[in-house]
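quick one, 378 residues, struct below
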Amino acid sequence: MIELTRRGLLGAGAALALPFPAIAQAAEGLNAVAKTKGMRFGSCFSWGPPGADRGSFANPKYAELLKRDCGILVPENEFKWQAIRPDAKTFNLDHFSDMLDFAEANGMAMRGHTLLWHKTQYFPKWLNDYDFGASPAKEAERILGTHIRTLCKLYASRITSFDVVNETVEEGSGALRTSSLSKAFGGTEAMLDFAYHTAREHAPGVELTYNDYMSWEPGNDGHRTGVLKLLEGFRKRGTPCDTLGVQSHIGLTDGGTVGALVNKQEKPWRSFLDSAVAMGYKLAVTEFDVDDHLLPTDTKVRDGIVANYAAAYLEIMFSYPQLRDVLAWGMSDRFTWLNGYKPRKDKTHQRATPYNDEYQPKALYGVIHDAFAGAPAR
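---
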């Protein structure tokens, strides 16, 4: 297994173009290594018809990666409002139920992502257009309360962690987003507090998480400040949120060496994490991948850059004993969302995940393995 540590990288002044040799798959899966440190490794996955070429449990090749390496799973899209709420009266949970059955049949835990994704472009159309009537606050409580109570009552005994709210902080200003729903409540804070209290009441033993994509790259200062303000407000108001979900969609956005980038980014990032854990929050890496759309075409060079950068990031994250769960946002480059969201100009797949598009492990796989192997025990 390749030995990669941030200290070694910085000491060598590792260039961005440092190539890596091919990586061999470890004898034990990633979650098996994580368990030795009191941690878990997992991934998002999707629903698909049997045999379809998707990142689905019904794709035998992809399912084999999940079964080999994962101890916890999360639906990529199949638990979100736009997937399960076709209208104000209906829940369609067929796909998610199939996914939960797969997880349980293979001894894996499941995360619930998400009870409320507070970005209006990801609301179902009916919710954006909804008429809350003469008593909007009461109707808003009924709509959101019905959603959360229904899912908690159905799955509280089968889901280990709910992302109660996802992405309610504006990345530019750090302010709280508004929506048809939050306006009907009379304010975003009132809506958020209601969501967490309702989830706690109906899923009393389940971890309640706030999930967001504030990143360690430059330009995210306002986003991080807004998230800390939100978390501080939760504590002041007694809002029952347990954990900060750190999405960890990291990416290389500057030139120079990995060491130079990490030296620039580590201090403000640690300051952010220190502030969160000082308030009593646990940490979870909920959606880890590495955006390579600005990197060279050569796959060996690209894999080396991605691996070096990821090694530095994971060493920082794993130094916090408040971190236990680490989930990749996909196991194979073949299905990473980044291929559509940030396509490469050379038309190749992003190399953002532990396995390439032919289901073979890459240097990033080795980095994740070694990060768990070298982590302090929880």
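The radius of gyration is 20 Å.
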